[in-house]
Design brief:
Blueprint: H1 10-25, H2 47-68, H3 71-82, H4 89-100, H5 107-126, H6 132-154, H7 162-176, H8 181-204
Length: about 200
């Protein structure tokens, strides 16, 4: 299992990352409207894991800007939140998750799913269904454990995701604002260097 022997847990990082993305989407929502999420996802145990979660979360938020403009995805998210039709809410969520990975699993698509979970949680709060935020977190964590964790471990763990996610982040932002390319390169380079330093620290453990 990737990284487990170095004190890093791909499962912990993944679950903490899902929670991080959801909390980021809900940061403008009054805290009284958001139920506690901590018991539903494991917590990171080391400073290195937390740094990885923070860096990955930044890149996923940038990638999410592209999904924000995808009407099909937004309609699907709204459909889950409205609860229309005869399917259960979990079945509708699973359909959206399957659509994300219909052409296979990649690091970028994993990031997209986590972003979709964050947007769905926000929609649930806006629909005055705050307790459903916990369901969204639980669904996403379950899908991650059952469908994505094995792939992540087989592909070297989260530490190997940085180059692909950084590239996807750069493409997302440059497509929105081509004049910001130099700033993006500096930002992404900083993330990659930070992840490399983290990796070197882990190797010494």
């Amino acid at each position: 299992m990737a990284n487990e022997g170095n004190g890093m847990s791909d499962e912990r990082i993944g679950e903490a990352l899902i929670k991080e993305v959801i909390q980021e989407e809900l940061k403008e929502v009054p805290s009284d409207d958001v139920p506690p999420l901590t018991p539903l996802a494991v917590e990171v145990k080391t400073e290195q894991e937390q740094k990885m979660v923070t860096q990955l979360g930044k890149m996923i938020r940038i990638i999410g800007d592209r999904v924000r403009d995808d009407k099909e995805f937004q309609d699907a998210i709204d459909g889950i939140a409205r609860g229309c039709g005869t399917e259960s809410t979990w079945d509708r969520f699973k359909k959206v998750a399957d659509k994300v990975f219909e052409h296979g699993i990649t690091w970028e698509r994993i990031g997209v799913l986590f972003y979709v979970a964050g947007r769905l949680a926000l929609r649930m709060v806006e629909a005055h269904l705050p307790q459903s935020v916990r369901e969204v977190l639980r669904w996403t964590v379950d899908f991650f454990r059952n469908n994505l964790l094995g792939w992540i471990r087989d592909h070297g763990g989260w530490i190997n995701s940085f180059s692909d996610l950084a590239s996807a982040s750069m493409q997302s932002v440059s497509s929105l604002n081509p004049h910001s390319c130099n700033i993006i390169v500096i930002f992404v380079t900083g993330l990659v260097v930070g992840s490399f330093i983290t990796w070197r620290l882990i190797r010494r453990l």
